Amino acid sequence: MSEQVPVLECRNLSVSYFVRAGEIPAVVDFTMKLMPGEAQGIVGESGCGKSTVALAIMNYMGRNGAIVGGQILFEGRDMRTMSDEELRQIRGSKIAMVYQEPMASLNPSMKIGDQLAEVPLFHEGVSEDEAKRRAREMLSNVRLPDPGRIMESYPHQISGGQQQRVVIAMALLSNPKLLLLDEPTTALDVTVEAGIVELIKEISSEFGTSMIYISHNLGLILETCDRITVMYSGEAVEVGDIHTVFNNMRHPYTRGLFNSIPVPGADKNARPLVAIRGQLPLPHERPKGCYFGPRCDYFEAGRCDAGHLPMEEVAPGSNHFVRCVRFAEIDWEALKPKPKEQEPIEPGDVVLRVENLTKHYEVEHTGLLFVSEKRTVKANEKISFRAREAETVAIVGESGCGKSTFAKVLMGLEEASAGRVQLGNLELSKLPVEARDGATISRLQMVFQNPFDTLNPSHTVGAQIARVIKKFGIEKDPERIRERVYELLDTVKLPRDFADRKPRQLSGGQKQRVGIARAFAGDPKMVIADEPVSALDVSVQAAVTGLLMDIQRENRTTLLFISHDLSVVRYLSDRIVVMYLGQIMEKGLTEEIFSPPYHPYTEALLSAVPIADTRVEKRKVVLTGELPSPTDPPKGCPFSTRCPYVIEGLCETTPPPVRSFSDSHTIACHLEEARLTAMEPVIKIDDDPAQAAE
Amino acid sequence: MAVTTQVPGSSSLLERLQRPRVIIALMLVMWLPLMTYVMFGNYLGQQLKDLILLPAIPATFLLWLVAVISWRESWVAVLGVTLVFFWLLVAVSAPYLPLIDPNKPIAPFTVPGLERKGHYFILGADLKGRDMLSRTLWGCQRVLVWGVTATLVAYIIGSMLGLLAGYLAGWWDEVISFISNVLLSFPVMVLYILILNYLGPSGFNIVIAVTFASAPAIMRIVRGLTLDMKSRDYIFAAQTRGEHPLWIMLVELLPNARGPIIVDACLRLGYTTVAITTLTFLGLGLPPPDPDWGLMIKEAAKVAMLWKFSYMLLIPALAVSSLILGFNLMADGLREMSLKD
Ligand code: SF4
Ligand code: SF4
């Protein structure tokens, strides 16, 4: 490899943004070498500078960003000494970038075929027919079905996953040396994401394109990359081969990251997650010396805060670098999370009974020439399950599966079309929230998904919690209310003076804590948590889930946890309900869901979730096709358009029977029981006998 | 909003002045006496009328100070706010300034800078011999008070309708949007003239006319903002808490719409000032003889053909322009700052 010229090399690259307040260093002393055909992952939490690296390479830093030090070398030549013309040439044809939002790269008013054909037309000057031919070929290369139809479509006529494939096709058409992927799948559903990840892997082997894959998801990086750079607060803190870093990380931050993500084997009772304490420093408040210092358990005054730390090679020739002065002295074995065991919670009586809950919407569909037709969206179709006191029930599904509608019906914002929902002895399905009394409302509360939306930006944190207390009539006296607000802030481990702050002064994780405090202000019996951590950074996620579970344990609250992330769900729930297009596909205890027999959809879902653990081996089940629109679901089994096991002539037309495998475990599928039972486990864990039992 | 930015190094008194509660109190101390003075001056006793504006002067000054300090990042906003507050300060202090009675005819057609009949006319005298300086300064009272009041009323009504249409949607939205669209389809001036012809010219009728002309546009802005906000989780949270729709609209939604509303209000104050001046010019506005810029322009229009007397027209015209410019710059600066945040 040594005589090969790296495709891209960053040497001590520093990038800053200049704002009114002064210079804000976004990336500091960043070094990276990318060899031909290699895939490098850059991983880090929001604000760590990972996207800035990509923007610096593309030179898209905007008016106030600039490279303030170091070099970027493309095929051995410093890009800062190239002429503008040369740079444009390189950035147009040799480096291509794929963003998180596919629509950012597509022209909404131009047919996809024309947009794609423009690339070879412009860069290589081929004939129009030739350009069209290449475009069509590339569309089938990115595994898009029916390229002819896609060529003639406008971007908004195809789904998000297809759009992202088109963007990747467009990037590949210029035959780039380097492909930059900035969170290319974050906006997509897991099963669609799995398809794109598969495609990206094929690209690197088929076309030999070098890639830089930027993501916050360690599991995705493990699946796609050869080398990994871990960034923290603008600095690379650890660089190395992916397996070395995953198994023998030598930086306390990397270690902390791995301890805070749920991998198979983590369990809320036996092996709880360990969150990294504190939070990411703001760029202008970074400490002297090691930026991770204030959050590090190994911090040693005098050494860690002495001055800027260099990257050091762990062992000569290992090609594994870390930025930590103490990496050689730390006992890395001892830092493995110590099981802080907790007694499992005994579930109590049944609190929530949902029986055959159905919710249909009428939507008016305005077609061509304003012929409007009424269509029924079957958001929820015959949903039945139960939840007990102090139990965590997870509802798992991708977008359009009806989980949000279900939450709305439960909260009384929508009326059910049919079926029953009973909370204790109270029938809720036809009881809108206005008709519920304070006591009922306070028994059923919700934690929301988006931390930036969950609090009203105009009011102080204290006022918003106090409003709930007052509204539910828990306390009347202003003094007592204030006291209760403080207590709640204590419970969610926030300082009391946060009561006087406005939401914009809080970080995402802190806002989510306030959201939890607000939900628990009325001593609820049951809390619905709608993806409460999916928008948070990994290291914060662990702390927030931990908190949620502690409060639940203490109050014996029933938690209804809505999520698409099977790793988190596996970690914290007792029971799982898997939904697809408004229907329950499978439900059962957590162990039952994660081991065969599987519903074909659960199997695909399990295989799609990226797992950040090198010991895990997954069986590949990649789904073709996209989620059908809920306005037009298949007649029989909703999964029949994508199911690898589909029985022709039966699944499409007849709704599947519900087969039960135990008191708690049911699967809705036409496949025979023997066939379902005979399925191989999707997730296998190697070389650790203690956990292979799973 | 930048109004609440902390000022590093400033005295604690200044910081305290920047609290919303203090600012609102100062605004009331400035505005209420001025409004009473202009609208109901004749019902006040002479003694009260002489004193009522006194507390407003320091309040106005303090407000200007606070505004300049909190908006100091944007020189555009500072310039705008200074222009506006110059006229506000003139409005509240007019009775205490050493000015000649603005309605007393002394020496007709005196050009600026001449002394006649024992008076020195800095800006000259108009065709009836009244002092231009004094008339210009006094004139800002009526323009400001009626302009701001009319805009305020239009805003209250427009915002309420916008909230109703946006949040409740359904029939509310259909009806409110339909009426607004009908009103919006009239040219604004035609609408003004129709309403004022029907109701007769007076300050209060101007308020009504401005409301009819502006509220639909305001309603559209607020409706749009509401539609955007009502799917946010905090609104969802309030709904699941069983809050009354009125509470959600006023407490949860309205405060979050204030940024764009304030910017738009500054612009609209400019339009309203133009409209009131134009209406007065057309004889549909405030009744004479009290000075008013529109009235001054109207009276001067007959003689200003002569270059020598064009000052009669130019001076009030400049005054109007400077006020409108002030409002517009303020809007620009505020928008610029809100984009930066
Ligand atoms: S340098 Fe010190 S503070 Fe930083 S990671 Fe290493 S031990 Fe921790
Ligand atoms: S019923 Fe048919 S289509 Fe549906 S999951 Fe089973 S095998 Fe697949």
The CATH homologous superfamily of the largest domain in chain B is termed: MetI-like
CATH fold field value of the largest domain in chain B:
MetI-like fold
Task: Tell me the helix content of chain A.
Answer: 25-40%
Rg of chain B, rounded, reads 22 Å
What is the number of beta strands of chain B? 2
Task: Please describe the biggest sheet of chain B, giving its number of strands, its sense, and whether it closes into a barrel.
Answer: 2 strands, antiparallel
Instruction: Measure the end-to-end span of chain A.
Output: 41 Å
Give the neighbour order of strands across the main sheet of chain A: 6-7-8-3-9-10-12-11
Annotation field: number of helices of chain B = 14
Oligomeric nature of the chains: heterodimer
With helices defined by DSSP (H or I, 4 residues minimum), what is the helix count of chain A? Answer: 21
Greatest chain-chain contact:
A-B, 27 and 18 residues
Please tally the β strands of chain A and state the result: 26
Shape of chain A: globular
| Number of structural domains of chain B | 2
Short description:
The complex is a heterodimer of chains A (694) and B (341). Chain A is α/β, with parallel strands linked by helices and 694 residues long.
Give structural notes:
The complex is a heterodimer of chains A (694) and B (341). In chain A, helix 13 crosses helix 14. Chain A has 21 helices and 26 strands. By secondary structure, chain A is of the alpha/beta class. Chain A has an eight-stranded mixed β-sheet with strand order 6-7-8-3-9-10-12-11, with helices on both faces. Chain B is mainly α and 341 residues long. Helices cover 70% and strands 2% of the residues of chain B. Chain B has 14 helices and two strands; from the N terminus they run H-H-H-H-H-E-E-H-H-H-H-H-H-H-H-H. Chain B has helices spanning 12-17, 20-40, 46-51, 56-70, 75-93, 132-168, 170-184, 188-199, 203-229, 233-240, 245-253, 258-281, 293-301, 311-340; strands at 114-116, 119-121. Chain B has a two-stranded antiparallel ribbon. The N and C termini of chain B lie close together (8 Å). Mean pLDDT of chain B is 83; it is low at 1-10. Classes of the chains: A alpha/beta (694), B mainly alpha (341). Chain A binds chain B through residues 20, 411-413, 433-434, 436, 438, 441, 445-446, 448-450, 453-459, 467-468, 471-472, 515, 518, and chain B through 73, 232-234, 236-243, 251-252, 255-256, 258, 340. The site of one iron/sulfur cluster has 13 residues of chain A, from loops. One iron/sulfur cluster binds at residues 600, 637, 639-640, 643, 645-647, 651, 656, 669-671 of chain A.
